[in-house]
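Incident log, support desk, overnight shift.

02:14 A customer reports that sequence design results differ from what the structure should imply. Their input is reproduced verbatim below. On-call engineer (initials T.W.) acknowledged and began investigating.
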């Protein structure tokens, strides 16, 4: 990735394409509409509320990120999506029961105008869902062409100058990359033959890459994390990022685990369980779909704690992750963690965390930031994997041969240094020796 020679301004409207118009997507849309009307605060969004230090601490130069780099604004965003159900964005949000009526009523008329296009849906990848608002095509290759046509038609009729896509759909069954995923040619042959290793999310992603639409993957699905997609993203000069929004329990892990490692406190075991009652919880109640999420969640501790480097402290951790579908909770997820840690001379201690969070409330600002930053990446001429956006993901994608960086604080430093680098500013190392010379 080379520093941009020219960073073009965000001209015109930006179409935000959302595969999956459910709880996360509609919470995101409603929040954007409320915020741009001055009726809500976009808490949790770096692009809207974050700042960035430039130069020395003594310079007191700390602009908002949105003032430092040329970002699309909330007023630039137009929302579009696909879904298994024909409900408009307002009906879907009302059914999800994430936001109160006092908020939804303020943007009801705008959300009612956002109607989903029929979805690409092969039910074998998400067996707990049974939608009727779906596309019917003879092959997966023709499904890709149908999505491409949706994108072209939407851009033409809406007057948007460009688009970006953020996957907000469900977790699919676990799929290992295979021969079909190796090259552009093998993947397109697989599409023509409707290869069973090509899932719904991969079809959307392939269509977006073909159309030059940046694609961020908010679920642990394979989607764009395979060689052929990496190759196509480079050929079409289209940024990709993923995977799996880092919201509740894993967010806590990427905050706590770096602290344990920094203080060289030992860890014997980490037990995590989630209680979740929304559509995502129902989908993850299927063992095949849960495996995809489990793989995404389990890699975090190993990469942060480096057991091969610190075998005495982290060489024999028992790490268990569970997700339980519990309908009464709805979107109000509870993440419960028990940590068995060790201190001086091996004495045992415990940490217990009970995070009573709201899944879609935590995910919505991530969708916003990814849409805006991926658009920035496209205008900067970046292609392929955008590792600088790892901050937002449970299982960050990287270049081949690299391990992912999971430490939240390193991820944030990388994100902000990438923005400084884009604009030709000095990177900040926090060395600070110049203050004491």
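02:41 Re-run completed on a clean worker. Output:
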């Amino acid at each position: 990735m080379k520093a941009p020679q020219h960073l073009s301004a965000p001209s015109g409207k930006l179409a935000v394409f959302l595969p999956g118009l459910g709880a996360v997507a509609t919470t995101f849309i409603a929040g954007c509409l409320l915020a741009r009307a001055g009726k809500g605060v976009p808490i949790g969004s770096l692009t809207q509320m974050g700042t960035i230090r430039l130069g020395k601490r003594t310079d007191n130069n700390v602009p908002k990120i949105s003032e430092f780099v040329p970002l699309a604004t909330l007023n630039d965003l137009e929302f579009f999506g696909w879904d298994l159900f024909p409900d408009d964005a307002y009906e879907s949000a009302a059914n999800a029961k994430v936001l109160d009526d006092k908020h939804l009523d303020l943007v009801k008329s705008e959300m009612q105008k956002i109607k989903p296009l029929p979805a690409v849906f092969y039910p074998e990848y998400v067996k707990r869902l049974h939608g009727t608002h779906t596309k019917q095509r003879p092959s997966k290759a023709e499904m890709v062409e149908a999505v491409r046509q949706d994108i072209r038609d939407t851009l033409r009729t809406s007057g948007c100058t460009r688009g970006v896509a953020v996957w907000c759909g469900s977790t699919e069954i676990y799929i290992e990359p295979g021969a079909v995923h190796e090259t552009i040619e093998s993947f397109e042959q697989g599409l023509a033959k409707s290869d069973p290793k090509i899932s719904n999310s991969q079809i959307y992603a392939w269509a977006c890459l073909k159309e030059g639409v940046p694609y961020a993957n908010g679920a642990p699905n394979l989607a764009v994390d395979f060689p052929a997609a990496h190759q196509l993203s480079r050929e079409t000069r289209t940024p990709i990022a993923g995977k799996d929004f880092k919201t509740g329990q894993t967010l806590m892990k990427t905050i706590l685990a770096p602290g344990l490692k920094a203080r060289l406190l030992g860890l014997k075991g980490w037990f995590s369980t989630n209680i979740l009652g929304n559509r995502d919880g129902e989908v993850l109640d299927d063992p095949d779909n849960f495996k995809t999420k489990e793989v995404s969640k389990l890699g975090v501790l190993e990469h942060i704690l480096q057991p091969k480097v610190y075998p005495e402290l982290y060489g024999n951790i028992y790490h268990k992750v569970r997700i339980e579908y519990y309908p009464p909770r709805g979107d109000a997820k509870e993440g419960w963690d028990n940590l068995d840690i060790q201190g001086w001379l091996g004495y045992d201690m415990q940490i217990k965390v009970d995070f009573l969070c709201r899944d879609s409330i935590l995910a919505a600002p991530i969708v916003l930031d990814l849409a805006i930053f991926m658009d920035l990446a496209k205008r900067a001429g970046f292609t392929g994997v955008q590792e600088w956006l790892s901050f937002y993901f449970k299982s960050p994608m990287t270049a081949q041969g690299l391990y992912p960086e999971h430490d939240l604080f390193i991820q944030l430093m990388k994100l902000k240094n990438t923005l400084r680098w884009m604009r030709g500013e000095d990177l900040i190392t926090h060395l600070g020796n110049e203050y004491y010379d």
